[in-house]
Amino acid sequence: MFRHTPLRYAVLAILAIAALMQAFTAGYFGLEILIEILILCLLVLALDLVAGFGGMVSLCHGALMGVGAYAFVALNALAGLDPWLAALGAVAITAAVAWVIGAVCARSHGIYFIMATLAFGQMGYSYVFSAPLFGGDDGIGGIDRFDLTALGIDLSDSRTFALFCLAVLAAAYLFTVAILRSGLGRSLAGVMHNEKRMKALGLITWRVKADVFGLSGVIAGVAGVLAAQHIQFISPGLMNWTVSGEALVVVILGGLGTLVGPLVGAAAFVVMKHQLGEITTYWHLIVGVILIAVVMSRANGIFGWVEARWGARIERRLSDATRASTPKEVSTDA
Amino acid sequence: MLETRSLTKSFGAVHVTRAVSLKLERGERRVILGPNGAGKTTLFNLLVGELTPDSGSVHLAGEDVTALTVPRRARRGLSRSYQKNTLFDGLTVEENLALAAAVNTGHATRLWSDSLSRPEIRETLAEVAHQVNLMPYLHARVSEISYGVRRQLEVGVALATRPLVLLMDEPTSGVGPEMSKGFHELLNNLPRDLTLLIIEHDMDLAFDVADTITVLNYGEVVFDGLPDAARGSKLLKDIYLGSWEDA
Questions:
Q1: Nearest CA in chain B to A53
Q2: Are A58 and A51 a contacting pair, CB within 8 Å?
Q3: Does B126 touch chain A (CB under 8 A)?
Q4: Pick from A113, A278, B103, B239: CA 20 to 30 A from residue A269's CA?
Q5: What is the pLDDT of residues A38-66, one digit of tens each?
Q6: DSSP conformation class of A309
């Protein structure tokens, strides 16, 4: 069951402050990197919800983000709908697609679940790769960003768009926490710990998995809409399995099933990609070595390691401080 | 309340359940006895739907539930505890009980409310925790409590669904004599309108709790009657001493 610890609050605050500082001080390229991190954060949040809290390790979340992006393009650039309506439609379509994938794959486990989701993802990739409607392998452009000029907000400005993405990420984080703390989220935890017993208690477990997969699709769909608006151009590469693979690497690197960890992982991954990419084109090799070290260390990712090392100590100190500040009972005996 | 009619199951050439017909009235407490391999747990698996019978039927409160899945039978009031603890190890005792209570009250799939904070769930889990003596352990994780307390929780989780019929597969399996005595009290204090079907090897507990006793051997019912009759049964003694031969 998901719990916010003082350490998790502290890391969230640090991440939020760092993102705000970057948003207000960075130049164009710094802002582009920030937006890339924020969109990846949305994707890994969606993936951590199903993989970290439901045991459903998905290799189709990149494709789900792609469904969100392509659906947005179809409704906005092709059908001419207002970007807000198009975004709403795109998120609904992604959630529906995710629900169906979740419902079909829910009866499989482990490697079979991973392979089934991979197959779904690659079906989507193959379709857009050869669909003339979406520009085939050339991709498609002409995508509008949201229009908030009525509120005096210009989202064509990178700084403003980065702040907008940050606000969306904060809302998505709260949405994910709300899911995990709901009856549905608790049942998901039950299914992950012991699906057989949940069935014996009367729960239709495939339905719980499908519902949470659908909700995860909502977040992936939002990531897709923002990804489409970010570069205002999309190509089939967005739906390739390597995007899902990278998202999974980020979740494991950050800390599976912690929500906060994958955000740390996303920031670390994108920064490493750009910093190491300046030194060598083989930056993937270095990231691979780091991932192997993280996995072999048996810590639950970077954040899991920090939590295991300092989390208990911080909580103990805080509870000691709370006890010390509580007024002691004064004896009134004569 | 619970009835089986000629329930039969084979795995290849091995007949594990042979035309078993049982009828439990509401509030009846029946203990199933039998040596290892007699087909007791298989019978439970057939009753809850984890196994499909080759022939025969299962009826719950007058309804034929043979074709229903495990969750659907559970929702109609058939709950079970397992011989080996089948709990949610990473969660607290309170969360384990709440999961079961939430399924029964329909809160298990709600998105906008926390099942653990619902008054009806809290009421159920407090009542069940009191019934199975888990009040001191509510906030402890399953991994932090002793084996005996886990056995209590195993029964508690099954009870928290508010079943009509509770099937208990060796509730005292692996616990010491002191804790076993505690289980006598625990089972005797359960609501009288709850129908109980218990697999048990502990004879003292069986005779203390049971209204009726059924003995299975090689998958078939070889005795069905009152505890006093079972106590004096030569057949039962022979089965447990190992000298009984297929009649």
A1: B90
A2: yes
A3: no
A4: A113
A5: 999 999 999 999 999 999 999 999 999 99
A6: I
